[in-house]
Amino acid sequence: xxxxxxxxxxxxxxxxxxxxxxxxxxxxxxxxxxxxxxxxxxxxxxxxxxxxxxxxxxxxxxxxxxxxxxxxxxxxxxxxxxxxxxxxxxxxxxx
Length: 95
Ligand SMILES: [Zn+2]
Ligand SMILES: [Zn+2]
Ligand SMILES: [Zn+2]
Description:
alpha+beta, 2 helices, 5 strands
């Protein structure tokens, strides 16, 4: 099965350098995830806020990428499959 959610995706730069919701509320995060639809930065499911997954439930934006330094992988919430980072999104990830 091939994920079709990468088609037509036009990644935009991250809106924040940390989890957007955690920064507002002073919460701590473990790992960061970047929404490849709108540039929202949220925290992973090991973080108390789970804001990346919540962002998907709120917005239905299907694909996120790891926003951790040096990590290059993406995840489709709909198909629940790991994906290669699309070329267009690579420049927005952290070294
Ligand atoms: Zn998909
Ligand atoms: Zn968070
Ligand atoms: Zn989004």
